[in-house]
Design goal:
Layout (H helix, E strand, L loop, with lengths): L11 H7 L8 H18 L8 H16 L11 E5 L2 E5 L12 H7 L37 H4 L7
Antiparallel strand pairs: 1-2
Helix pairs in contact: 2-3
């Protein structure tokens, strides 16, 4: 399957428009992350190739912003604590490694995880099965008692 066009899904300028406090001098890094995040979206959500171009652009910008929004002094830190006198504070960064991830809403907007109905053919018979005259279906039941539904021919009730 070929990558949807455009690839990456957004440009650095489009990212800057969505991020008021874009870090100065981070354009090259952002460009690489936009490519990586675009491929990440295709890898974890193949249905995203069919999503609207604007949706892919919005989501890839959100992913890159989350990945770049880790302050240098917190990178890789899972928790932190400071104590001065009788005052202490602790914190846990939400994405300390700058990992890519999709939120539930982003997955839904890209078309990932949508449930689809399907059927599985269990037995290799063609056409409609021939039930016994005394099968429960003949008397208005919602189930088959002779087994023709599962085997294609009656297997119970002699």
């Amino acid at each position: 399957m070929s990558a949807p066009s455009p690839f990456p899904f957004a440009t650095v300028d489009e990212l800057k428009k969505r991020w008021r406090d874009f870090p100065l001098g981070a354009e090259d890094h952002a460009e690489v992350l936009l490519e990586d995040a675009s491929q990440f979206i295709l890898d974890v959500c193949p249905a995203s190739a069919d999503a609207a171009e604007e949706t892919r652009r919005r989501v890839v910008c959100a992913i890159v912003r989350r990945a770049m929004n880790v302050p240098d002094h917190l990178a890789g830190l899972s928790t932190g604590q400071e104590t001065t006198g009788g005052v202490s504070r602790s914190w846990s960064p939400s994405n300390p490694n700058g990992d890519f991830y999709l939120t539930k809403t982003e997955r839904q907007s890209l078309g990932c995880g949508r449930q689809k109905a399907f059927g599985v053919k269990i037995a290799g018979f063609g056409g409609r099965p021939q039930h016994r005259p005394w099968c429960s279906l003949a008397f208005g039941a919602a189930y088959c008692s002779c087994g023709a539904d599962i085997a294609g021919e009656p297997i119970y009730e002699g």
